[in-house]
Fold this sequence. Notes:
Blueprint: H1 2-26, E1 32-36, H2 43-59, E2 63-67, H3 74-81, E3 89-93, H4 96-103, E4 115-123, E5 126-130, H5 140-149, E6 155-158, H6 164-176, E7 181-184, H7 188-197, E8 202-206, H8 207-215, E9 220-224, H9 239-242, E10 252-258, H10 263-277, H11 280-288, E11 292-293, H12 298-319
Helix pairs in contact: 2-10, 4-12
Amino acid sequence: MKRKLFSSLTLGVLALTAAGASFAAEFPSQPIRWVVPFTPGGAMDVIARTMSDSMSRTLGQSIVIENRSGAGGNIGAAYAAKAAADGHTIMIAANGMAVNPALYKNMTYDPIKDFEPISLLAIVPNVLVANPDNSPAKTIPEVIELAKAKPGHYTFASAGVGTSIHLAGELFLSMADVDMLHVPYKGSGPAVTDLLGGQVDYMFDSITSAKPHIDGGKLTAIAVTTAKRSSTLPDLPTVAEAGLPGYDLSPWFAAFAPTGTPADVIAKIRDAMLTALADPKVKATLDSIGAEVVGGSTEELREHLAKETALWKDLVVERGIEAM
């Protein structure tokens, strides 16, 4: 009886293993939904759309971009987390994946437990820019000097509470020990409009939207927020180089799938993504928006998310940042 039971269990395990292997071999069996938890037109949306054509050719199935925006990316993420864990729904995410758990008390998903990491994709640096009519500062020491002389006088705009643009400013205020007023907007577009119009003084904007105004002489570029200089603005120093050693905010973009997605399926998607990132046409488009290719393993993304989650939780608590 025991031998018969053991044989049955063994056959069951073998059958499940074979089924799993067969499923991975057949993937993808239908179009893939790539959830973008923000509105069309931003860097996240551009990255997903740019990569999707190359990935479709590699995987042999179309990839449909699905924008589900709202609540700092939480609406799209919650939707993706509840999708079938078969690889036919994936999501692109950014720093908010690590920040939101500290900002929102009633999240309906867990960024770490409810998702399988696929790969880091790219970094799009932020750049500290100033309205030259409001602030004569051209360097980090000058920004700090002016802010210390008039605490609370100068303002910095952001694309919303908890965005990388906002956190870059909060990290700067914390490390420089200065006081500026944060002015949040619903998106980068209206924030830049008011910066250009002189309603606010500074912004740690994405290099994607800031560069045309820098090139046109309408904004003063002071420093980039990343640990390394940007290839898009190679002559511009980092904040760390320019006066705040150790400063680093690198807005990252990465891909995830619902937890439980088979490892072999994750590997197929990741391979298609890395192939896309190596495609000269894809790279040229990413270069045009200031995106710098990263790539990497699933484990590297898992460790990166855990590290970022702890880091930004500390800053959110220290600065008393609350979701609006």
